[in-house]
Amino acid sequence: MDSPHDFLATVAQPIGWLYAVAAGLNLIAVGRVFPKQPGKAAAWALFAAAFVWAATWSFAGQPPMLPRGVKDLANAWLGPVSFTLGSIVFLAILFTRREFFVKTAVAWTGFNLTLGLFCLSLTDPHFAAIVSKGDNVPIVAMVFLLGYFTWLGARRAVENDRRAAEGLSPVEKDLGDPVLVWPDLVYIELICMVLVTAGLIAWSLLLRAPLEQPANPVVTPNPAKAPWYFLGLQEMLVFFDASIAGVVLPILIILGLCAIPYLDVNPRGNGYYTIAQRKFAYVVFQFGFLQLWVFLILIGTFLRGPGWAFFGPFEAHDPHKVEALTTVSLSRCVWDAWLGAGMPKVDPVAGSAGRFATVLWRESVGLGILALYFLGLPVVLARTWLAEYRRALGWGRYWIMVLLLLAMLMLPVKMLLRWTTGLSFVVSMPEYFLNI
Predict the structure, then answer these.
(1) Which of 50, 203, 331, 364 has a C-alpha 20 to 30 A away from that of 27?
(2) Helix ranges restricted to H, 60-185
(3) CB 16, CB 59: distance < 8 Å
(4) H or E element in which residue 291 lies
């Protein structure tokens, strides 16, 4: 790796341009709100001045840098458990306080702080090596775009919920005359196509293609990462058997998406944005998409390194790092550690029925937990929190819905159990190629 001075000389100019773009965006924001909102204009002017100052120092070869203490704290706190629990708490806060976070001033302030922190982080060679990799640059861009469009959808939903509380129709009902496909929509699509093509050409000229050496069947990259759109599945393979993570769960995702029109009996919210009228559907979708897919992609992209070990965002990816993680199945904990009786052993001379009975007895505790989770918990929920949905759906559709939800929740539960207790499988039947 280059010396710190040489590294800063390399990244100072790009960071300076990022600061300059951020300053320009804030100056545009000042022009949009001044003089109607002088307080906001002054705040955006302060952000613009701060970015201009940072850009000036960056172009001079001395970009502002994050203190070492901040980077050490980020490396220590962005572990697997804290990242997963923190992201769940973050999504919960965004949902419960959505009326506050959809405000333009709050969102723009958050964008400025995020962009400033990103530019400061680029002065770290390890962070810069991750985000500037050709494969990861579009993922970084998609993170910002995903944040914007999620905010935009929530903003429109909150506005419609406010209008509904006042007895008004949704904003979408007041859009006016429809837009004709020809010539209006076709012209817009043509212009977008030209702009996207020009952007892709500029992208290909400015960024080197992430090509590696010719494929060698005897040399495996470390880490061997799947394309970004498969990183969620690759992350699930860490916590489940290949047949579960690679076959069962993807099939359940597809079947669950196909079942949505038949399980969704709420007639409200069709054709317009809303959250208050579809809270359950909104929470389930956002949790499934953001927490169980997008955040898994971010983990696989930015926090997984050599040996598929966890690394902080400012931590060197040492290929010799070994995580002290010892996993054990639930049955071994029960029979060896808790009861001290030793694992029941399958008699090789016994018949197939006898061997199967021994395996069932060995895994009886895990099977009982799964039975309570997938059979007992739905009954309890049908009489408590989900009683209204059970009455609206009926028992058949209710069972399909709740089993799909429990299968979805099984992923974060299994992840946290692995990281906190070292539990590998609740039920381990290698004799029948079944590990859950």
Answers:
(1) 203
(2) 68-77, 80-96, 98-101, 104-121, 125-131, 137-165
(3) yes
(4) none
What Cα–Cα distance (Å) separates residue 8 from each residue in 12, 74, 120, 288, 331? 6, 21, 12, 40, 53
* Cα maximum dimension of the chain: 89
Partners of residue 434 on adjacent β-strands: 429
Please compute Rg for the chain using Cα positions: 26
Cα–Cα distance for residue pair 55/61, rounded to 1 Å: 10
Dig out the tokens for 162 from the structure.
């406010």
Q: Is the pTM of this model over 0.70?
A: yes
Residue 418 to residue 296: CA distance in whole angstroms: 15
Task: Provide the b/e sequence for 256-289 (b: ≥16 CB within 10 Å).
Answer: beeeeeeebeeeebeebbbbbbbeebbebebbbe
The Cα–Cα gap between 236 and 239 comes to 6
Gap between the Cα atoms of 325 and 5, Å rounded: 37
User: Residue 399's closest CA among 262, 220, 221, 231?
Assistant: 262
* Chain length of the chain: 436
Q: Which tens digit of pLDDT belongs to each residue from 220-275?
A: 888 888 888 888 889 888 888 888 888 888 888 888 888 888 888 888 888 889 99
Alpha-carbon distance of 426 to 328, in angstroms, equals 9
Q: With H, G, I as helix, E, B as strand and everything else as coil, classify residue 434.
A: strand
Q: What is the pLDDT of residues 84-136, one digit of tens each?
A: 899 999 999 999 999 999 999 999 999 999 999 999 999 999 999 899 888 88
Q: Does the pLDDT value for residue 402 go beyond 90?
A: yes
282 in Cβ contact with 264 (< 8 Å): no
Cβ atoms of 351 and 372 closer than 8 Å: no
